Amino acid sequence: MNAESESLESSPADLNATSSNRKMDQLSQFRPNSFPLQYSGTSSLSVSRPSAIGFHLNSIFNTVPITCGATANTKLEEDYMSVQGMESASACCPISSNAVDKFSFIPKNVGDKSKALIAANFASSESLHITAPPNDKSKIISEQTDNFEYSRRTSPKTKRTKTPSTNDGDDRRCNCKKTKCLKLYCDCFAAGFYCAEPCACQGCFNRPDYEDTVLDTREQIESRNPLAFAPRIVQRVNEFNSMENGNRATPSSGRHKRGCNCKKSMCLKKYCECYQANIGCSSGCRCDGCKNVYGRKEECAATVLGMNKEMVSDEIGKERFDGIFGKNLEGMANKADLLHAELYDPHNITPLTPAFQYPESESKSQIVSRSYLPSPEFDSPLSSYVDSSKTSRTSNSIDLLLPANKESLSLGSYDWRLDYTNMEMMDQFSPESDTIALSHLTSLSDPPFMAMASSTSSKTRDSANSSHFQLSPGTGYVSSAGFHHWCSSPITPMTSLEGTKSHQGLDPDSEFCDILDYGAPDIPRDRATPSINQLKFVPQIRRGSPPPSHLNKLGSSSSGA
DNA sequence: GAGTTTGAAACT
DNA sequence: CAGTTTCAAACTC
Ligand SMILES: [Zn+2]
Ligand SMILES: [Zn+2]
Ligand SMILES: [Zn+2]
Ligand SMILES: [Zn+2]
Ligand SMILES: [Zn+2]
Ligand SMILES: [Zn+2]
């Protein structure tokens, strides 16, 4: 059997038989090149949303501050340009709503990779994106039409323009041999990006030329699992907490909605999605022997209750908490304060404080923090989005992204796919359910550090946070090279789904907002530097990030413990 | 770079 | 919904 041969030759049909149905309508016609988004086929919708705007991240990024939406500047629509990061953005943009921000951060640097990105998108009606640039490098990317991400899940990455050294631009690259990049196994596909040069995939159909196929496939997958492309991480944003903290939210971490199921890695390696996303495990995780440096699931619970990690530290009895605490935020608040302090630091990237690990509370607080607060402008859009909810075909979704801060950028981390959304939005949607997604990039270079310094995460706020929302209705796609993202459209469903779910059981934390997609890692391991110097960025990848120095081994969780 | 390990996606 | 297979990445050497 030659698998390869099969793949190559075959057409996507194999994978999806459906494609032909719909998509052809129009979509094919549009090409990403010029238009990125598109996809219309299905409706288009996705991208272009009606009302307002559809901007995409790019636009936002470019403009940034203002943006936020509102303006969008000119291009909004067209737009989908790419984005890039800018510092200013962060500053300016606060993001939206509130929500989110980011978190992650990482202390170390990776040096090379960095990129971060940011981006955000919006989709449905409006969206904004913001980006934050990485630290040093910040740069902007241009906007050309070549790239954009539009999708909901996107994650961004950043890149810099120039950098002499390495750089890469994007990191996203896959090496799919059998899936033609039309299944979730493919990072590119899963992230909503088209495969680009850096990809070493064989028989790839995840390209603009096959837009219809891609969209169609995506839809199919979505049909089965509405949450398939939905952001997996949710941030918990409790306004409550935030208030206490004083500022807004804390971005730090988010939680996976689904949770991980690690049996052997103890959540200490990137095999764990939670770890990869730079977030701690939560009660929804089914991991065995969890030692996630960002926070163990048990701790999480405890935290919520108000206990410090220490209390929980042992593995013992924490489980009980899980069930219970579900909503205690108060405890968190306390912690938040602590964290808060650290957070406040301006840039600290260095985290260092080992005090807590990952408190949820922090996150919240940060999130809320002021940085983000946006102006009312955002609200509007959001609202609209909400109302409209629209979407075209399938559903809509909203996401917010926040990229990382500069700091993060430096490192290069990113999240997989995260989308951040704000709480507010959620409120609008469904109060309890969260539908928000956030994305951020995180850096992840060293998790441990973060853990230690819980604050680290918090700190993110610095300026960097950029976030943006995105809603995406239909499907949007982006290619990396060109980067076309597609947006997915889960939206509505999210609300329903999530709401339901959350309540049901996985997410006890109703308060959290959703976040992102998957997570993200920072960088792929290898980076090839593509030639993309121009703009590209990419977002997320499933696994990839530079390994921490120390943590090579699973067991080493020395630090924390 | 090849080979092993890992956990999610996909399939049954 | 659970069990198994498939898959590509993370990791190891
Ligand atoms: Zn692929
Ligand atoms: Zn690819
Ligand atoms: Zn591909
Ligand atoms: Zn795990
Ligand atoms: Zn987990
Ligand atoms: Zn775990």
From TrEMBL:
One of its GO terms (cellular component) is nucleus. It is found in: Nucleus. Keywords: Nucleus. Residues 1-10, 16-26 have a biased composition (Polar residues). Residues 1-26, 133-170, 538-561 are annotated as: Disordered. Its main location: nucleus. Signal peptide: none annotated. SMART domains: CXC. Pfam families: TCR. One of its GO terms (molecular function) is DNA-binding transcription factor activity. The keyword Nucleus applies. Residues 170-295 form the CRC domain. PANTHER family: OS12G0605300 PROTEIN, PROTEIN TESMIN/TSO1-LIKE CXC 2. Belongs to the lin-54 family. This is CRC domain-containing protein. It comes from Carya illinoinensis (Pecan).
